Predict the 3D structure of the following.
Amino acid sequence: MRMMTQRYVVIWLGLVLFLVILTACEHDTEVAESTEALEPVMDKGNNPNDSADDTIKIGFSMDTLEEERWLKDRELFKEELEALGAEVEIMVANENASVQISQAETLISSGIDLLVVVPYNTETAAAIVEKAHLAGIKVLSYDRIIKNANIDLYVSFDNEMVGELQAEAIKQLVPTGNYVYIGGPVTDNNAILVKKGVFHVLKPSIDRGEITVVYDQWTEDWNPDNAYKNMLAALEANDNQVDAVIAANDATAGGAIRALAEKGLAGIPVAGQDADLAAAQRIVKGTQTMTAYKPIRALAQRAAELAVKLASGETIDTDNKINNGKIEVPSVLLAPIEVNQHNIDQTIIADGFHTRTEVYGD
Ligand code: BGC
């Protein structure tokens, strides 16, 4: 009787064990299946940069829309990105370094795949790069380089060449005499590069005593009023004995030309940069000698193409590398073009940058 009971207990225990193992196996299968099904969903959830669809989303953090060119940059970069199937979110910091950092934070947390930055301040914008990288987002420096940061790519024009074109044009017209240099702001690396290009060309003549730079100042925020004040100060300090002016862009050239006109000196050679409409009009009128023209469509196109590649995880290899104080940044630099009275029709007008009517009037 006892033996019988023991046998029943063993059989019963065996049955229970069998059932337990069976249930566990079924459960394992369920877990495995559900993990498989969940994986892609969980990936999306963990990475804020993956949008629900596959559309590439680019954040564009701009410094300013003050100068005419940036309106073109905004419109054309958006157009080029959209033509490549990407979306773009644009924020403008209105020349405020801390506003630009907080706008960049907003863009970073909005699920972008890449951040494109035109820095207001070449140095402090490094914080933006760090924040983007912490979120796993690469950074493309657009037109202006960000110093001392691990930026992933830099796309711009050759800014030193801008200065060289300016100085060569003016030196040809004024091989000897008193020069005034109206720079951009020292907070923009482009202003530093343009100045380097100018003085690279002028140096031999300065060394020979043929050219004297009688005034040389930075212009805060590229502001035409500041340039106007600088030019007035230059004229006062030199009893109006000024033979030529090189200004870092057309906005500052405009300010300088206003001061020259007030002193009855309109018409002395002045160089600028950007091919702003006002500058093109001054060129045909004869109050500005030249402008270094940068076809913005070409920049926007190249930057958009590379931005989409970077955002898709492609590595961009460029022949050019520029040291930004921290790393050798892969860089693409386009060539600026000298525009003067003689070639304005074949350059900015032929390109549709400005129409003939806009430039010459009716
Ligand atoms: C750009 C110029 C522009 C200036 C003022 C520079 O960094 O290269 O084209 O005129 O900023 O916005």
About this structure: The pocket of beta-D-glucopyranose is lined by residues 67, 69, 143-144, 188, 190, 222, 249, 273-274 (CB under 6 Å). The domain at 159-294+339-360 is CATH 3.40.50.2300 (Rossmann fold). The chain has three domains: 1-34, 57-151+297-334, 159-294+339-360.
